[in-house]
Write a structure and sequence with these properties.
There is one protein chain. The protein has helices spanning about 5-20, 25-40, 50-60, 65-85, 110-120, 125-140, 145-150, 180-195, 215-225, 235-250, 255-260, 265-270, 270-285, and strands spanning about 155, 160-165, 170-175. The protein is mainly alpha-helical and about 290 residues long. The protein folds into two domains: about 5-85, DNA polymerase, domain 1 (Orthogonal Bundle), CATH 1.10.150; about 110-285, hpI Integrase, Chain A. Strands 1-2-3 form a three-stranded antiparallel sheet. Helix 1 packs antiparallel against helix 2 (about 25-40) and helix 6 crosses helix 10.
């Protein structure tokens, strides 16, 4: 890849960060997608011909339908910025239809969630922290990036709510459940004693540094293995499970959208497919005319 494209991607990264206000993780994902697309497919210039060939290549690759759609979308957003930057419609992309493949997220049962949380005891700082992390992710339905960014000052134990900062720096208020409150207070008792640096972040490492996303993945994965959970779970599984359990218990879609921090209710609607499966299962097991 030539230097002019690399410099262009640097400018685009600045635009996403400072003009669009996207999170660090989102900006990095956009840049990585574009960098890999241009490198793997030997794109040497930004032109209609080169990028339309790239879109056709994407459509023939053995990606999942959703991955194809994401890559094409990333490319279209980049071209929109590029044309605006050049103050002319220099690059025109052809329309390519890619069929959607909507894979339903895997979820855990309430019993399995309880097993994950209760696996950790209250004896050490690490076990209290890990217990609180798993409970926090399920009880608030937060994203892993939101968990890493939570500060102690974001929690109001008097009013029982937490302020989360989501995608695009959007903030939302999420209630603290009674069980999560107990686990958080128990963890904070030891954190205040251990944390000589007085870190403002809620969840910290052994060395008093803020926890990174990879650390959260390891905690969830290792706990799942130790409790013999058969699903290949990750932090987002807890978010999916929370959303599904709330819908099954009667939560309306608009409230769930606010709870999850989705900008569009259409994103939240994927969970209605899960609850339909649940209803079908219950119907088939219990209705005399099933």
């Amino acid at each position: 890849m030539n230097n002019s494209i690399k410099y262009l991607l640097d400018d685009y990264q600045d635009y996403l960060s400072y003009s669009k206000g996207l999170s660090k993780n989102s900006v990095e994902a956009y840049r990585t997608d574009l960098l890999n697309l241009f490198k793997e497919n030997l794109v040497t210039n930004i032109s209609s011909d080169a990028l339309n060939k790239l879109i056709k290549l994407i459509s023939t690759k053995e990606y999942s339908p959703n991955t194809k759609k994401r890559k094409v979308s990333v490319l279209r957003q980049f071209v929109k910025w590029y044309n605006f930057r050049e103050n002319t419609k220099t690059v025109i992309l052809e329309d390519v239809t890619i069929k959607s493949g909507q894979r339903l997220p895997e979820t855990l049962s309430i019993t399995q969630i309880e097993q994950l949380i209760n696996f950790h005891d209250q004896e050490t700082f690490i076990s209290r922290r890990n217990k609180a992390i798993i409970d926090f992710m399920y009880s608030t339905g937060c994203r892993v990036s939101e968990l890493c960014d939570v500060k102690i000052a974001d929690i109001d134990f008097d009013e029982d709510y937490i302020q989360l900062t989501g995608k695009g720096s959007k903030q939302r208020i999420v209630p603290i459940g009674s069980k999560l409150k107990i686990n958080l207070l128990s963890y904070l008792d030891l954190k205040l004693v251990k944390d000589i640096s007085n870190s403002p972040f809620l969840f910290i490492s052994r060395t008093d540094n803020p926890l990174e996303r990879t650390a959260i993945f390891r905690i969830i994965k290792s706990t799942a293995l130790k409790t013999s959970t058969t699903l290949n779970i990750h932090p987002h599984t807890l978010r999916h499970s929370a959303a599904t359990h709330m819908l099954e218990a009667g939560c309306d879609l608009r409230t769930l959208q606010e709870y999850l921090g989705h900008s569009s209710v259409s994103t939240t609607q994927i969970y209605t497919k899960l609850t339909k499966e649940f209803l079908n299962e219950v119907f088939n097991e219990s209705h005399p005319r099933a």
